[in-house]
Amino acid sequence: MFDLESFHADAVATPSHENVAAMRELLCETLEEAGLEPEVDDLGNTLATRGGGEDGDGPHLVLNTHIDTVAPHVPHERDGDVVRGRGACDAKGPLAALLAAFLRVEPTAGKLTLAITPDEETLMTGAAGLQERLSADGYVVGEPTDLDVCIAARGQCEGTITIEGESGHAAKVPADRNPVFGLESVLEALRAYDEAAGPGEDDVLGEPKLTPTVLEGGEAPNRVPGSCRVTFDRRSVPPETADSFAADLEAFLEERVAAGGGLEVSVDLIRPDTPFPKAFVTDADERLVRTLRDASGGDVRPFGAATEAGFFAADAPTVVFGPGVLADDEGGVAHAGREYVRLSDVEAAADTLEAALTALLE
């Protein structure tokens, strides 16, 4: 018998902010104790499957979340119904709920796969690999949604804008060749980008968001640097991708900033060889959405943060669901030193998932 409360306590007490090996061992041991044979693939994903008889009838549904957490580790602490500690809600609370439902449900038609990734908080290579390797009819991605059914999320990428001009003595370099002066034009262009050249407002997700976050340049007060740099964060809506955005932004900046010939401007994505979370929207009328909504009683809405769900939504209806909140009236919860989840909500999420999956796989 799977003990949700004990598993969640052990999971939160297990550090997984630098290395997920111990947390993955806990997960695999729990699955083995339930009589299953989990597989760990070359990307570090942990997979287990139930159902899937010889006739292959019925849908294939996937339960996904992650075992890594952000730094620093915050020790486990319980006060009545409230469990505190790193990962309590992001995402070891959702993991406990998904795992409980996975072990309770006996598919009479179709197949149920548990697919747990190791690097959602960093590179997301695990989810990108699963997108290529799994073929499913629906995905439930565990994240803190306060038991609401989230059918959309913005994509996210980060990058730099480099402005190049002429370096030299502050008394000699002309203003139109000074890249620091070019910062003003770049920042004005960033403010105007979405209205002038962006993808427009999405019916579910609303507007995209482009935010400059870091300025770099210069080493001495009497010398003009040869270049300076702006770092940005982009939250995208469909159909924009990280690559299409970078190309479109560079063309826009060349027209607005470099057209005079005094400066050159370029856009580069940070970690371009790793996958970026993609924007997605799932139709609210999909059976997966309706079934989970009916079981949870929660709202149907967008998710408020980047998530691995976008990788899966390109292939099948995908929802984000789980116990806990990203933030409350006092401020941030997930990733914060005060991270917590209510154990009753973890149990409610498990019951909701069990009911929905049973209806979908009967």
Let me know the CATH homologous superfamily of the largest domain.
Zn peptidases
Q: By helix and strand content, what is the structural category?
A: alpha+beta
Number of helices: 9
- Reading the helices and strands in chain order gives HHEEEEEHEHEEEEHEEEHEEHEHEEEEH
Q: What is the 3D shape?
A: elongated
Secondary structure elements and pairings:
Blueprint: H1 4-13, H2 21-33, E1 39-40, E2 46-51, E3 60-66, E4 77-79, E5 82-84, H3 92-104, E6 111-117, H4 125-133, E7 138-142, E8 149-153, E9 155-164, E10 168-169, H5 179-197, E11 209-217, E12 223-224, E13 227-236, H6 242-256, E14 264-269, E15 280-281, H7 287-296, E16 300-302, H8 309-313, E17 318-321, E18 327-328, E19 331-332, E20 340-342, H9 343-360
Parallel strand pairs: 3-6, 3-7, 7-17, 8-16
Antiparallel strand pairs: 1-2, 2-6, 4-5, 5-20, 8-15, 9-13, 9-14, 10-12, 11-13, 18-19
Helix pairs in contact: 1-3, 3-9, 5-6, 7-9
General description of the model:
A six-stranded mixed β-sheet has the order 1-2-6-3-7-17, sandwiched between helices. A four-stranded antiparallel β-sheet has the order 11-13-9-14, covered by helices on one side. A three-stranded antiparallel β-sheet has the order 4-5-20. The chain is elongated, with a radius of gyration of 23 Å. It has helices at about 5-15, 20-35, 90-105, 125-135, 180-195, 240-255, 285-295, 310-315, 345-360; strands spanning about 40, 45-50, 60-65, 75-80, 80-85, 110-115, 140, 150-155, 155-165, 170, 210-215, 225, 225-235, 265-270, 280, 300, 320, 325-330, 330, 340. Helices cover about 30% and strands about 25% of the residues. It is built from nine helices and 20 strands. It has about 350 residues and is of the alpha+beta class.
